[in-house]
Amino acid sequence: MEKRQNSANHIKIKTTSTAKGMATIDYFERRLDDKKRLTIPSELRAEFKSGVVVTRGFKKYLHLYSKTVWDSMVEPALKGDILDEATADINVKFRTGKIESPLDAKQGRILLDQQLLDYAGISKDIIAVRAGQYWRLSQKPRGLKTRA
To answer: Would you call 28 exposed, middle or buried from its count of C-beta atoms within 10 A (0-12, 13-18, 19+)?
Structure first.
């Protein structure tokens, strides 16, 4: 199922069906508003009811986690061995500029810090792709056509 919305900040949602026949959203595009807020699709807001955590990604993109996933999966993984350099490096990457916030109750928005946007090279148009338990946020490449 594909859904188009008319608002300038809401571009497209792509869904797929699970084995049980339920639709899950695995891709969406958005345009940041003038205050650098990202609107989470209404179909996904329950996933983020615990809040959101946004960090730098492994490469030039951002990770978007629900607070529940961050607390139950990421934090324990970041503990690692106190003398392990790889663990230290990933902690520095994920914690530098990390933001935690609730989802705006009315419109489902989160404010993205400029330093995170700069890291990922995001100016206005964002592509969000589900990567298992989290989302990758990146700049929509110029000339990329939205799938019809």
So the answer is: buried
CATH: 3.40.50.300, 3.40.50.2300, 2.60.40.10, 3.40.1550.20. Which one for 2-139? 3.40.1550.20
The answer to whether 39 and 109 have CB atoms below 8 angstroms apart is: yes
The answer to whether 29 and 126 are in contact (CB under 8 A) is yes
- Spatial distance between the Cα atoms of 15 and 58, rounded to a whole number of angstroms: 25
Maximal CA-CA distance, the chain: 52
Q: Is there a contact between 56 and 94 (Cβ–Cβ < 8 Å)?
A: yes
All residue ranges of the chain with pLDDT < 70 are 1-23, 143-148
Of 100, 3, 16, 71, which Cα lies nearest the Cα of 42?
3
User: What tokens does 61 get?
Assistant: 């993109």
Q: Give me the residue spans of the domains in the chain.
A: 2-139
Amino acid at 80: G
10-17 vs 23-31, strand pairing mode: antiparallel
Check: pTM over 0.90? Answer yes or no: no
Asked if residues 103 and 37 have their Cβ atoms less than 8 Å apart, the reply is: no
- Residue whose C-alpha is closest to residue 126's, from 9, 24, 2, 35: 9
